[in-house]
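=== Structural record ===
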Amino acid sequence: MEIIDKVEVLKQALNSARKEGKSIGFVPTMGALHQGHMDLVSRASTECDLVVVSVFVNPTQFNNSADLKHYPRTPEADAELLKKFGCDLAFFPSNTEIYPENWVSPRVDLDGLDLVMEGKFRPGHFKGVVEVVSRLFEIVEPDKAFFGLKDFQQVAVIKKMVEELNLPLEIVACETSRTEKGLAMSSRNKRLSESQKEEALIIFRTLSQAKVDAGKFSPKETTARAIENFETGSLKLEYLTIVNPDTLQELTDNWVPGATMCIACFCGEVRLIDNLTLIPNS
């Protein structure tokens, strides 16, 4: 595995690979890597000839300066982990490499996907996501890019961005990686104590019960029951909603294929998100 911190050096390596006819898979991350990230890297290595992983904590997608300050950064451990799971090129850029003075962020109409859920509670978040992901795609020019469905709304936003910018790549959405007990793997989990990790299991229990309830109740009733269930635990709820997977608009009366429950909450000072598809796509 080669570790690279300069855009031009990475581009040279990728151009050489393309000349050899190699397909390029890309996994963008913000570091503090865990098994969920490695599942993405492993998936990329099975589908592409060469795998690039970027590690960059993007300041423009944080609307809370304290959250940015406390976001875990473990570059040495990240590099060691990437060596073991099939990464070929590890890209650790600086802010100035990603955002040079002359770079202009593309304007993308997200058709309201950025205004609900995370967009409502974290204003400007998805503008930052579009900025950094479009820039990374511009640098790497991958054939396929791999994202985890834990960030369900982010995947929808990135797919829309790719469509709007007419980028020639495939977005591969991968199932959420979970611990044995069901907690969604997240870099933020590093900030949780062992007792908090146990308390956070109410999230998956709530989602799992909602999946059972979805066959018996309307979306509105299922949501109400899920909130009741969640509140038996100690976490503080920010939002819990069932949405259309394509538009991300809230469902109340009628179910649609792929209907998904999304949740955001606080475990102590740590903000956690998760989701689960309640109704099959077919």
Summary: DSSP finds eleven helices and nine strands in the chain. The first strand starts at residue 2 and ends at 4. The chain has a mean pLDDT of 96.
